[in-house]
């Protein structure tokens, strides 16, 4: 937790991954992010992984440091309260549909400079999710050794869309501060995905070559990088991106003469050219395979670290989680009183501001924990009216 | 291109994916982003994919709409010019090391409220890349069907770190506007990766269960979703995240009675519970496999679309790029005069602001194309002095 966004308040009506992470990143930087959910929780409130008492470890991590207002969004009075909260706040993050009671036009009718950031599936409003958008742009057909497609397990498009939505919210606020103009910003997963293919050169490459990139398993396209196995059976990734790393890797493995022989035979120099190291991988990789298979991982790791060579053994997520350098001793983590009752390292902001004190992470709210506070503060509802709404089942409290 | 960030100027000294995308997202929203590179190009200036004339299709897409100043950063005078540009501008995005001539302390000595956003590998400053960070947190051991680990091809950690860095830059500017205080914001890939594992519930899950999640191939954890093959051999992804989608999927495939029989036999109801649909996948998936294998993809797609069911056939990137709905007819794309000379659809901002006119995408700059303009405007260097610097090889021009 940092205080970069102190003073900013955002209403969030969202579910799944992308839209909640946009709110999470803002909350971890000090914004007041108020989730408004169906009483009892929205569609992802019980999403796996869950504890034995069916508390979602997923939900309670994606919604840290937020407040919760619970409303019956199936009834007009609940919907109107959400609309009123959006208008009274002026900033709104959502993945609700473009049309309907949370359309920007409807909301802006009572708040002319409202900023709505809306995460969508397809840009035309039809439904899509990370997994289906990923198929649509072709990555599963490039992943793994084939022939079957391999989906990524990391919901990368959701995550990128969420971070981009948080960026777009602040960009829109910056313009409003300068000009007074708000508006809607739509972030479709499909455009994040195909736009990313474009940004990485993928559209240009496919149209230039008229073909698909070869499927490379764990090798990296266009440079020297793939997995190797050490004498003691440790599979490890090695990637070279600078001349110094290449020189040090060749030196560390005693391959100077062998590399020089390939360079002489093929009339090339690998010293400064990622592309040549990739083009001639048929000759290079077997040399490195043999040299690495000859030495232990501990031995190689020490030499690689000394040479600034980028490498990393494969390990399981459980091993990663139990690595003190990565989690227990990492200052981005702290303790928080989670709704599930289970205690574990809780993440704060990804970023570190070395000159600022980091405040500990905060827990996700219980459904409706801040209903009374927010309805009183934001909408100036008297306590008797709030009590009536609770009795009528329009407002839920924790 | 949109104008949300008009008036913001940023110096970028960066390479590879993460740091350049942070600048790209800002430039596509209207900021003036000035890349400062080594004369002739930095370490990624020729990165693959490249054209036959060795122009990088990767570089020219990651650096659209930016300006370019070329300096000899190997000499003190070139380094001092970059430092002066950063101080004169006040905002800096980089992946240069924490120490050295671009350390925040050195730069802020001449610009007390400077904001530096620094993308890093490991948080302690040691080198890491997307591929090695990914190994370190365990995703390759969860991807594919096993037993071998599978790296993602999409540089997801780079991309997420870049978008988060752009968000963090605007957040830091927001605080500086309010308080006058700048500072350094460090975004290590390693903390983005392990922080994301935490945000998705992965740390909690691993510590709660004491085990790794099962490896599921193309099936999605914790809900109903995986790949199926139609009668005409089309592999397609289907994912269910709402009760309505479930009801419509069961109806579309005529599985009502068969599902009811499983529910009766096992004493559960699948209507509203993602987790139960996952737990009982041993019974459910074979039913759906058979029903889907019985019908053509076209037939199923029509019924699925009508029912709001989220599905997507697998296809190659070349097929995706040639889909008019995704690229040629998609308003996020336009034409730009690329340095490579090759013409193809160029991407603008991922986001769409429906109330604003979208300006066409702009090309990446040629190395040094804006050296004279920026040195004159930003540092008030007289033309004679700029000519001397060019003659001395300290400044490069396109």
Q: How would you briefly describe this protein structure?
A:
2 copies of one chain form a homodimer. By secondary structure, chain A is α/β, with parallel strands linked by helices. Chain A has helices at residues 18-28, 59-62, 76-89, 104-108, 130-137, 156-179, 189-199, 202-209, 243-252, 256-266, 274-279, 281-293, 297-306, 317-321, 371-379, 383-391; strands at 9-13, 32-38, 67-71, 91-94, 115-120, 183-188, 224-229, 235-240, 310-313, 333-334, 346-347, 395-396.
3D structure, described in words:
- 2 copies of one chain form a homodimer.
- In chain A, 40% of the residues lie in helices and 14% in strands.
- In chain A, the strands form 3 sheets. In chain A, strands 6-5-4-1-2-3-12 form a 7-stranded mixed sheet, sandwiched between helices. The first copy, chain A, has a 3-stranded antiparallel sheet with strand order 7-8-9. In chain A, strands 10-11 form a two-stranded antiparallel sheet.
- Chain A is of the alpha/beta class.
- Chain A is elongated.
- In chain A, 55% of the residues are buried.
- In chain A, helix 1 (18-28) links the parallel strand 1 and strand 2 (32-38).
- At the A-B interface, helix 1, helix 2, helix 5, helix 6 and strand 6 of A face helix 1, helix 2, helix 5, helix 6 and strand 6 of B.
How many distinct beta strands of chain A? 12
Major sheet attributes of chain A: 7 strands, mixed
Please list the strands of the largest sheet of chain A in the order they lie side by side: 6-5-4-1-2-3-12
- What are the segments of chain A in which pLDDT stays under 50 over at least 5 consecutive residues? none
Kindly report the average pLDDT value of chain A.
97
Shape assignment of chain A: elongated
Q: Kindly report the oligomeric state of this protein.
A: homodimer
Radius of gyration of chain A: 26 Å
**Helix segment count of chain A?**
16
Percentage of residues assigned to helices of chain A = 25-40%
**H/E series of chain A:** EHEHEHEHEHHEHHEEHHHHHEHEEHHE
- What portion of residues of chain A belong to β-strands? 5-15%
| Structural class by SSE content of chain A | alpha/beta
If interface size is counted as residues with C-beta under 8 Å from the partner's C-beta, which chains form the largest one?
A-B, 157 and 157 residues
CA-to-CA gap between the ends of chain A? 24 Å
């Amino acid at each position: 937790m940092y205080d970069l966004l102190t003073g900013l308040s955002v209403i969030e009506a969202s579910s799944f991954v992308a839209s909640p992470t946009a709110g999470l990143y803002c909350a971890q930087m000090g914004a007041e992010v108020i989730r408004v959910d169906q009483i009892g929780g929205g569609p992802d409130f019980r999403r796996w992984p869950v504890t034995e008492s069916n508390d979602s470890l997923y939900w309670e991590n994606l919604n840290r440091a937020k407040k919760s207002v619970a409303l019956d969004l199936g009834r007009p009075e609940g919907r109107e309260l959400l609309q009123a909260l959006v208008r009274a706040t002026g900033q709104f993050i959502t993945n609700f549909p473009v049309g309907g009671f949370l359309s920007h036009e409807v909301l802006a009718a009572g708040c002319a400079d409202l900023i709505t950031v809306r995460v969508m599936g397809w840009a035309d409003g039809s439904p899509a999710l990370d997994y289906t958008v990923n198929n649509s742009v072709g990555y599963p057909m490039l992943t793994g050794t084939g022939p079957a497609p391999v989906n990524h397990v990391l919901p990368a498009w959701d995550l990128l869309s969420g971070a981009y939505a948080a960026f777009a919210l602040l960009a829109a606020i910056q313009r409003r501060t300068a000009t007074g103009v708000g508006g809607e910003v739509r972030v479709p997963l499909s455009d994040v995905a195909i736009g990313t293919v474009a940004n990485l050169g993928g559209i240009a490459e496919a149209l230039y070559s008229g073909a698909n990139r070869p499927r490379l398993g764990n090798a990296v396209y266009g440079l020297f990088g793939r997995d190797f196995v050490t004498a003691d059976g440790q599979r490890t990734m090695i990637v070279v991106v600078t001349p110094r790393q290449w020189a040090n890797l060749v030196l560390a493995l005693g391959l100077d003469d062998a590399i020089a022989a390939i360079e002489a035979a093929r009339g090339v120099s690998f010293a400064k050219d990622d592309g040549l190291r990739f083009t001639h991988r048929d000759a290079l990789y077997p040399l490195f395979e043999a040299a690495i298979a000859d030495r232990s991982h501990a031995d190689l790791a020490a030499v690689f670290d000394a040479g600034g060579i980028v490498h990393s053994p494969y390990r399981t997520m459980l091993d990663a989680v139990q690595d003190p350098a990565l989690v227990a001793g990492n200052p981005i983590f702290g303790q928080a009183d989670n709704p599930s009752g289970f205690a574990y390292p809780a993440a704060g902001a990804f970023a570190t501001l070395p000159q600022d004190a980091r405040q500990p992470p905060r827990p996700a709210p219980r459904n409706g924990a801040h209903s009374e506070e927010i309805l009183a503060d934001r909408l100036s509802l008297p306590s008797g009216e709030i009590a009536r709404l609770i009795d009528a089942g329009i407002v839920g409290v924790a």
